[in-house]
Amino acid sequence: MQRKRYDSDLSDQEWQVIRPLIPIQQGAGRRMTLNLREVLNAIFYVVRTGCQWRALPSDFPNWNSVYYHFRKWVRNGTWRLINAALCQLERQKRGRDPQPTGGVIDSQSIKTTALAHERGFDGHKHIKGHKRHILTDTVGNLLEVVVHTADVADCKGAPPLIEKAAALFPTIKKIWADGAYKGDLSDVVKETLGAVLEIVEREAGQKGFQPLPRRWVIERTFAWFEWYRRLSKDYERLIECSEGIIYLASIRIMLKRIAA
After folding, report:
1. Fewer CB near the last or first residue (10 Å), C or N of the chain?
2. Dihedral of alpha carbons 197, 203, 206, 209, sign
């Protein structure tokens, strides 16, 4: 009997795009019996609806098996690599060079549950939890993410993100950021990527909301993430899982564009 279709399910076109990027088990060990497409559908269901792993509808594979694959691909970096590969495909579809030369950096403080292993208090935003640090390309595709406790200042939390991005996107030559990143970060960007950091600030006397050059792109990316209820609050126990959920939301967004 065919199961009910959910809005978060992969279409045939989307499955054909992501299928070659999914690692296939090789060598010794128990033979894979799960349908990987259904495993992915279950994972995307959690990310989109925000439900608990244990609350997965019964027509998906057993939640233990689904969560096992989610955690395994968090630990070995599979989600990160898939995100990077899809970013290149999405850029190619736009007629751009697959490797970005420009990026935008910003952070978002988010509340966690009491189950989080690490938490901090952001005195500026008055939020106790985590801080999501992301780097996007100039059209808003997620390049890299680092999650840390919310008490870490932006200028201190950004260097690990820059170092992480340098491994997969060494072609970046310019990064735009807001005034919170003034200081030593420009040296880190230059030494790590050989790139330039440009600070974009409000004009003197500016009142009310006005989109700022480049910075509005990354704010839009944070808005896209709000479509995924698992990101409305950080429900993860481990920071590495928090990063994995963000990669998954980004993967789902780009898959829709590539397969359209």
Report:
1. N
2. negative
